[in-house]
Amino acid sequence: MPTPRALYLGGSRPLDGGGQTASFALPPDDLATHGVVVGMTGSGKTGLLMVLVEEALQAGVPIVMIDIKGDLPNLLLTFPELSGAAFSPWLDERIAVREGRSVEEFADELAQRWRGWLADWNLGPEDVAHLRSRIAPRVLTPGSSTGEPLHVLSFLEQPSPLWQTDVEAARESLSASLSLLLRLIGRDPDPTRSRDHVVLSILAERRLRTGQAADVASLLEDVRTPPLDTLGAMPIDEYLPRRERTALATALNTLLASPTFEAWRSGAPLDIAGWLAPRPDGRTSAVIVSVAHLDDNERALVLGVVLDQFLAWMRSQSGTQQLRALLVLDEAYGFVPPHPANPPTKRPILSLMKQARAFGVGVVLATQNPMDLDYRVLSNAGAWWIGRLQTDADRERVVEAVASEGGADGTEPSELDEVIKRLAPRWFVMRNLHRKPSLALLQSRTTLCWLRGPMTRHDLRRLTRPAG
Fold first, then answer.
1. Before 454, cis peptide (omega within 30)?
2. Do 265 and 153 form a contact (C-beta atoms < 8 A)?
3. d(Cα 455, Cα 463) in Å, to the nearest integer?
4. Would you tell me the crossing angle of helices 125-134 and 45-58 to the nearest 10 degrees?
């Protein structure tokens, strides 16, 4: 088997800053034990995350990316010719006017700067062309036709083989789907306290385990005329009286009749195996699930469904020590918070952090504030990239975590705190438990794609539906 392509991340030097900056490449299998990127706004963490993505894709590792802020679709802004004409359609004319130049002049200058920044890392147009030719990108937009629509509720409408192979995983995926459905009709989505959720779960599982679809229309009919007499030890008319069932059925019917509901139940199926499968043309799949357009509650519920499906796919794979796939989450704030908060995304993320390495699946999370993460995320990550952190509490959290995991290489906590405090943009304290010494400084290289900034809905339409 050929040796996997190393991931060229930039340049490194010892933690004390001495010596020359040397080219640094990370063995891809090191990411099978997960990674965390932390740093305040402006520290360069999105750039480093994109470098990791670019390199992993060129090494043939398929990736599912969760896009929270709208930045990750920048991966598609690859211009092999590195010309002003390629940049200009994506420039904001107002910026050029404010600086007293035409869009064409501004674009030519940007193209020249980008060429120079790439040359500083011994990269050029041929490297951009290679990246572009190696990847097969998709931008999925659940609840919207801005990109490629995603059928988030496909687990209900298409019976899954999980009901025969892994009932526990099937139930977790069903629970996440029903929580989203209940959220869409304004009812309690909590599986631990919502009677609506319990009733729909039992009715849906009854259908799915016999190979039938549990689509909204079918569930609506079952709610109106239940195919069973009791739930647990109680008659169903006592557990959820007819009047309440009628109200639930009416709410489901209103949703079913709503034109906006089609955006949630049409488009590409939620099929992680299909997303990550090897492609006949040899390109590597780069699937971006963009939820930047959703509100916070919708994001948590949609991503709960997606992550549960990712977890179920992972558990169906054979064990391996080699990196098979990556899951990348651009901004983890609110999705895996410390106890006692428990959003729908927390359980699958923590399960992945604990179990995925045995299946060759890596998870890379990025966030501005390490205080936003459950401590188990840091303790289960073998690679950290720590950018500048402004607050004492954030620095204390990561310094304490480094010391407790035995990865400080004899560096005093106060010294490490001072290094993190003084880091310049695009410089990171890199901690990798697979290497000795485990601590070093890393300067991330320039990305091959153009980091233009967050994509609007209009931008995504242009990006995924180019003219002609």
1. no
2. yes
3. 9
4. 70
Residue 408: the pLDDT is 64
For residue range 230-279, what is the model confidence (pLDDT) as tens digits?
Answer: 999 999 999 999 999 999 999 999 999 998 888 888 899 999 999 999 99
Question: In whole angstroms, what is the distance from residue 329 CA to residue 63 CA?
Answer: 11
C-alpha distance from residue 129 to each of 53, 63, 448 (Å)? 16, 19, 9
What is the gyration radius of the CA atoms in the chain, in angstroms?
24
Question: CA 354 from chain center: how many Å?
Answer: 17
Whole-number Å distance between alpha carbons of 124 and 82: 9
Cis preceding-peptide flag for 340 (omega within 30 of 0):
yes
Measure the CA–CA gap between 177 and 191, rounded to whole angstroms: 11
65, β-bridge pairs: 288, 328
Distance CA 171, CA 181 (A): 15
pLDDT on residue 1: 43
User: Quick one: CA torsion of 199, 204, 210, 213, rounded to 10 degrees?
Assistant: 150
Q: Which distant-in-sequence residues (6+ apart) come within 8 Å of 278 by Cβ? A: none
